[in-house]
Design a protein that fits this description.
One of its GO terms (molecular function) is glycosyltransferase activity. With 354 residues, the protein is an alpha/beta fold. The protein is built from 12 helices and 13 strands.
Length: 354
């Protein structure tokens, strides 16, 4: 049996990467015959342990204190931790989401005379979170979570044969969420970090909502700069149409009916919130940020707008309200992302790391 060690840095416990790793281990545990032995090593630990508590084969090295203290602990302890864990577990394959970790693993391969392969599993767009060239040279293979990231890696000089397009896994959901009734109305939700500007680009969403020609409501779920967001929606005089709920661990249980999930990001790796929504039968409206949405969205599950045009977002929101009856076939919406479901993903993932 092949030993696969996945090494990750500190994680909050609330992000998409945590969900991906959890889904990978859950799918592996469902298999009656395991051809690979997965081991998760968390160097730094977590803020919330919900994502990691059910992972069976793991080792957690918890760092304490704030961001600055954790950074100091990494500088002092990470090289030693990496050396001794690789020596202890003697893996056939090492996978990491963190460039420093996979670079150290690649470096120790020579020192330990290891025969293992090092896989980079980077979860961000290289355009918006670029990697130094040294990190691109210190991995044997690359796991790309979207077609856009694969294109970026090729543009950086990585041979296409060394890049495996694996996407990210989503669990099949039994539950469904239907559309609201009524014409010329739309109920929307935003799920993610609350950022008026920057990556999440929620200012554009607010500006668009002031211009739509239909009646609308928006539910906002997440943490972040809530007060700045509140001030802006008050300034735009639309605060009565928006409810801010904060972070919810099981956000989908909050919805009785929903017409669309909206994503206005300037960049993503692979926006899992879109897949989560579609797996519940909810259509989506998303920006055409460089990596992610074009792999997910098609005519059966949503609309893509031009990130550079708030007017195009207004058009899509109006169109979604007018055509929400076109998105009433819940099973068709769910099946539109079949390549992302964990059973399909898992088989593809295994083929990619053999």
């Amino acid at each position: 049996m092949k030993n696969v060690m996945i090494i990750v840095p500190y994680m909050s416990g609330y992000g998409g990467t945590e969900t991906v790793i959890k889904n990978l281990f859950m799918e592996n545990s469902r298999k009656k015959q395991n051809i690979m032995n997965f081991k998760l090593v968390s160097v730094g630990g977590y803020r919330d342990n919900n994502w990691i508590s059910d992972i069976p084969n793991k080792e957690i090295i918890q760092f304490y204190g704030g961001k600055k203290l954790r950074k100091l602990q990494y500088m002092v302890f990470l090289p030693f931790i990496m050396f001794f864990k690789i020596k202890k577990y003697n893996p056939d394959t090492i996978i990491s989401t963190n460039p420093i970790i996979w670079t150290l693993a690649f470096f120790y391969k020579k020192i330990l005379k290891g025969k293992y392969q090092v896989f980079s599993w980077y979860h961000y767009s290289l355009k918006d979170k670029p990697l130094k060239s040294i990190f691109l040279k210190k991995a044997d293979k690359f796991l790309a979570i979207s077609s856009g990231i694969k294109r970026q890696l090729i543009a950086k000089g990585i041979p296409e044969d060394n890049i495996k397009l694996v996407y990210n896994p989503i669990l099949r959901k039994k539950g469904t969420i239907e559309r609201t009734e009524g014409k010329n109305t739309i109920k929307l939700a935003y799920i993610g970090r609350i950022m008026l500007d920057g990556q999440k680009n929620m200012r554009q969403l607010v500006d668009a909502l002031t211009q739509v020609s239909v009646d609308w409501k928006l539910d906002v779920y997440g943490e972040g700069d809530i007060e700045l967001f509140r001030k802006y929606i008050s300034k735009k005089k639309i605060n009565k149409n928006i409810q801010i709920h904060g972070f919810k661990k099981n956000v989908w249980s909050e919805f009785k009916k929903m017409d669309a999930i909206v994503l206005t990001s300037k960049y993503e790796g692979l926006p899992m919130v879109l897949n989560e929504a579609i797996s519940m039968g909810i259509p989506v409206v998303s920006s055409n940020c460089e990596t992610g949405p074009d792999d997910i969205i098609n005519r059966n599950n949503g609309l893509i707008y031009n990130l550079e045009s708030t007017a195009d977002l207004v058009r899509c929101l109006n169109l979604m309200a007018l055509k929400k009856n076109n998105f009433k076939n819940i099973m068709q919406i769910k099946e539109s992302i079949n390549k992302f479901y964990s059973d399909v993903f898992f088989n593809n993932f295994l083929r990619s790391i053999r």
